Amino acid sequence: MELFTAASSLPLMSLLFLLFALTIAFGFEFINGFHDTANAVTTVIYTKSLPATPAVIYSGFLNFLGVMVGGTSVAFSIVNLLPVDLLIDASGGKALVMVLSLLIGGIIWNLGTWVIGLPVSTSHTLIGSILGVGIVNSWMNGDGFGGLNWGQVATVMMALVISPLLGFVLAFIGLITMKLVIRDQRLYTPPVDNNPPPSWIRGILILTCGGVSFAHGSNDGQKGMGLILLVLIGFMPVYYAMDIHDQHKAKACREAVLNVKQVLAQANITDAAILKQADKVLESLDGKTSLAEVSEDNRWEVRKEIYALVVALGKLEKTTPDITKAIRPLNHVIKSSIEFIPLWVVIGVALSLGVGTTIGYKRIVITVAEKIGKTHLTFGQGAVAEAVTAATILGAVFFHMPVSTTHVLSSGIAGTMAANNSGVQFGTCRKILLAWVFTLPASIILSGTLFIIGCMVV
After folding, report:
1. Which stretches of 328-430 are assigned E, i.e. beta strand?
2. What are phi and psi of 424, to 5 degrees?
3. How many CA atoms lie within 13 A of 111 on its CB side?
4. What is the pLDDT of residue 84?
């Protein structure tokens, strides 16, 4: 296994700490699974469409599948929140404390809110934990708030803010439309005496449960991949700085850079900064077929050169449709040389999330199904809310944005309650809103405090 090959050169204590950090990271994904699983299985369990055990197994499998096929773009939106140089520039002990602080801080908040049955966002928790160590480290180094990628932070936060509002509005419109088209009143009144739904709506509920599970795996699983990649880069930057496993990646990257220069010349674009950065990458990769041929001492510097070019080309992509069409596929090839997720990480996250999904759902099911509206969840509300949730999350994956399954579904259910004149329990909604507001600062404080304490110890 490649991990053992990479870790074989580490001192014994560093190896033990790496294994401990990976255990905590995979544990975070396991907790993510049982903390967020109710978002997918609430409707099918509560409406008696499926018994609890088959529902969570079904949801767990589709979470697993979502991770396996969901890609890696969201993972790197998480990785790039924290300038990875912080992990490389820090001493070994400080890098370890940084990684463990963000992991343990996130786990404390997730477990605490799960115990009281409060559906909070694992995405918010993870992002807050990363920001916490980044902010504290920046202040300790005398850089103020300059040690974070604030552009990426703003983009991610915008996605986290907009997605619940989108969930509410789309679910509201969806249920209104459904009531106009389908007049069966059984869909809009709470189930009586544990009666199962009509067979056709039962099939839709099972399908939407699977859709949310798959979408959750696609989005949240990638967050876990990004988290584990931070651990690997922190401990073994030489091995995980770039994709040294593909035997032709250096050649492909160099050819893409040459093609970029050709496109710029044809479009009469003479951006000196981009051309200079492109020449740096070409010089570093000259005569190399595989990125493994880059000397270990230079790999991180070459990674930084490639990343700087990727960022510059990303901005250039947005200028005109023709430039976008020409540059984007080339930039994707260049980016793939430094943005890769080992297969064992993908499988490990998929298993952690899938197995975690099969337990711990009862506390949050009750909150979501019974305490958001003044009446209990109906068949139609469940189908619409989960269909909207699945579509919103998959859309976020397409646009490489991390969003909160918890908040999108909760707001979607609230939207259907409003559309159905079911009333909304403002006490519960207030708690969910407060959790939404406080999760970010709480996780920032937790991870930042743990980082300060850890730095005092090491």
Report:
1. none
2. -125, 135
3. 11
4. 58
Q: Which residues contact 110 (CB under 8 A, 6 or more apart)?
A: 28, 31, 32, 35, 120, 122, 125
Radius of gyration of the chain (CA): 23
Q: What is the model's pLDDT at position 82? A: 64
In the chain, DSSP finds a helix count (H) and a strand count (E) of 19, 0
8 Å CB contact between 379 and 59: no
CA distance 448 to 145: 13
Tell me the β-bridge partners of 424.
373
Which amino acid is located at 71 in the chain? G
| Tokens (6 digits) for 400 | 């490489």
Helices 122-140 and 426-457: angle between axes, nearest 10 degrees: 40
Q: End-to-end distance of the chain based on CA atoms, in angstroms?
A: 31
Sequence-ordered alpha helix ranges (H) in 399-425: 405-419
For the chain, which residues score pLDDT lower than 50?
Answer: 366, 369-374
Q: Are 58 and 213 in contact (CB under 8 A)?
A: yes
Encoded tokens for 239: 């091995």
Closest among 453, 457, 439, 448 to 139, alpha carbons compared: 448
Q: Could you tell me which residues come within 8 angstroms of residue 330 by beta carbon, excluding any fewer than 6 positions away?
A: 256, 257, 259, 260, 263, 313
- Classify residue 361 by its DSSP letter: -
CA distance 353 to 27: 9
Which of 435, 413, 436, 437 lies closest to 424 in space, CA to CA? 413
Show the tokens assigned to 50. Answer: 């499926």
Name residue, tokens 């909304």. 424
323 close to 316: Cβ distance less than 8 angstroms = yes
**283-to-208, 253, 277, 386 alpha-carbon distances in Å:** 51, 12, 10, 51
Strand runs labelled E in 153-299: none
| Chain-centroid distance, C-alpha 394 | 12
Q: Which residues pair with 373 in a beta bridge?
A: 424
pLDDT of residue 371: 45
Q: What pLDDT sits at residue 257?
A: 95
Residue 164: per-residue pLDDT: 86
Say how far apart CA 124 and CA 443 lie, in whole Å: 8
Domain ranges of the chain: 2-161+179-239+343-370+433-457, 242-336
